[in-house]
Amino acid sequence: MLLRAEEQFEFEDAMFSKAFPGTRQYHVFQQVFNVPLWIVDFFPIDQSNGLIGNPQRWSRQLTSSVQGLMSIQLASSSRRAQVRALLPAHTSPRGDIQLVRCSAIWNAHPLDDPEESTWLIETDHGPIADHELGLDPKDIIRTSLHWNDIGSKTL
Fold it and tell me: From the centroid of its chain, how far is CA 153?
């Protein structure tokens, strides 16, 4: 994981400790490397009508790797996931720090190596590739859909 928390930023909250035993809470964490920060918001789904339920019951998970993002269960019948990424300037299509909304995540492979597995992420500002392979999105072939945001208009 490329996120770091320091002891000085830890806080204790009786409600959090009771609701999430064995976890620790921090006010601040540091992103160690200049890579995309993946932000996954989960919204509960009201099973009676399929709409987003109580908005106060949302939760958020952060990761600084596509591998970490793939370890989060995005698809679920009880909650809707919305994925965004905070892109550093050197990975952003615009060349500056940018917050993008993800509409789909594809299983993929490089054009020149069908045996190499990677990911391609569709966003509202164009496709981005997993930075770990250093590939340009134009050099990647989509093979199958891993996840898509049912509320997105960019697919």
Answer: 18
